[in-house]
Each structure stands twice: as C-alpha cells, then as structure tokens.
C-alpha cells in the first residue's frame, strides 16, 4: 500500500508542481505596473517657435505738385495734395499827417475769411518752384490776416515818425521751416502750432 500511496502522491505532486510553476509564471507576468491616472481627454501642448520678423516701415512716396508757385496742402492720411485757394492781396501804403506820425504798409484781401479750415495741428504744405530760388524763406512769407469788415488785413511794416502815434499792428508774420524734398519741390512746416 505504501507503494500505491507513493505512486498517487507522485502523480499528484508532479501536476501540482507544474501548476504552481505556471501560477508563479502567470503571476510574474501580471505584476501591477505603476498606477497612471486615467483621463477622459488628453491635451497636448505644442510649442511652436514664433519667428519675430522685424517691422519694416513702408516708404511713403510723396506726391509731386503739379503747378509752379501754387501752394498745396498735404493730406497725410490719404497721401495726396489738395490745391489751396488763391487770392490777390493789395498792398497799401499809408502816411499819417504827411509822414510826421509815420507810415505803414498793409496787405488787404477781399472777403472776411478764407474758405479753407484746417482741423489738424500738424499742417504741411508743398510748393514747386522754377529752380532759380536760392532761399525759399526769403521768397515765401506767411502772414496771419485779421478780419476787418468785408476785408482781411495784415500790417507788413510800419515806421515811426517824428510825432509818435502808437497804433496796434494788425496780423503777424508766421515763421516757417522749409525742407527740400526733391529738385524744385519743397515741404513747408510751422515750427509752432498755429492759433
């Protein structure tokens, strides 16, 4: 009987050892891996290298005046020239009491005011010359005219006489800056803002 029991034990032990070996192998294969949190969606952040291009300022091609000795207003927003009104001024020389109280020269223009109004503070004019002008500031003078009835008037010069009679000057000379843009074409600007 002992032989019988040893036989049965051998028959049972061998499959049990095989089963135990298989179980250990299966357990080794199913070892728990690191616990990773589970998400519904995966968001990836792609970082793109942004190339910063240097800002290139576009060169503005300035318009060219059409007529010689005609002032034009430069519209910077639309890059175009606007033809300004032209008016004739009459130069009047007045002597007071035969020159004893002095004399003055004035320019008079018809109409109480100009039709043109500027809404911007930075006013730029263009003018084209014939090319024979050396100093444009001696060639062009800008005056502020004051209204007087149906005329506008500015005092150009006044001289005191033997008997002084202080009379208020009308209007004033406005200083300008002139910059050549091209041959015979000039930009005229005001150093201070106009009143």
Order of helices and strands: HEEEEEHEEEEEE
- The assigned structural class equals alpha+beta
- Helical proportion? 10-25%
Report the oligomer: single chain
Largest sheet: 5 strands, antiparallel
Uncertain regions spanning at least 5 consecutive residues: none
Mean pLDDT: 75
Number of strands: 11
Contiguous helical run count: 2
Topology of this protein?
Elements (H helix, E strand, L loop, with lengths): L1 H28 L42 E4 L4 E4 L5 E7 L6 E9 L13 E5 L7 H4 L2 E3 L1 E3 L2 E10 L11 E3 L2 E6 L2 E5 L6
Antiparallel strand pairs: 1-2, 1-5, 3-4, 4-8, 5-11, 6-9, 7-8, 10-11
In short:
By secondary structure, the protein is an alpha+beta fold. The protein has helices at residues 2-29, 136-139; strands at residues 72-75, 80-83, 89-95, 102-110, 124-128, 142-144, 146-148, 151-160, 172-174, 177-182, 185-189.
């Amino acid at each position: 009987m002992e032989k019988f029991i040893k036989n049965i034990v051998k028959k049972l032990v061998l499959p049990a050892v095989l089963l135990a070996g298989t179980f250990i192998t299966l357990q080794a294969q199913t070892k728990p891996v690191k616990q990773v949190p589970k998400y519904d969606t995966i968001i990836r952040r792609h970082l793109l290298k942004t190339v910063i291009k240097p800002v290139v300022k576009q060169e503005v091609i300035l318009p060219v005046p059409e007529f010689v000795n005609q002032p034009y207003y430069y519209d910077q927003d639309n890059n175009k020239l606007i033809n300004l009104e032209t008016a004739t001024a009459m130069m009047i020389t007045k002597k007071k009491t035969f020159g004893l109280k002095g004399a003055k020269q004035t320019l008079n223009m018809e109409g109480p005011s100009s039709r043109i109004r500027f809404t911007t503070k930075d006013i730029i004019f263009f003018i084209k010359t014939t090319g024979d002008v050396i100093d444009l500031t001696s060639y062009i003078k800008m005056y502020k005219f004051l209204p007087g009835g149906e005329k506008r008037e500015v005092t150009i010069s006044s001289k005191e006489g033997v008997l002084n009679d202080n009379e208020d000057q009308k209007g004033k000379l406005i200083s300008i800056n002139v910059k050549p843009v091209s041959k015979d074409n000039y930009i005229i600007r005001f150093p201070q803002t106009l009143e």
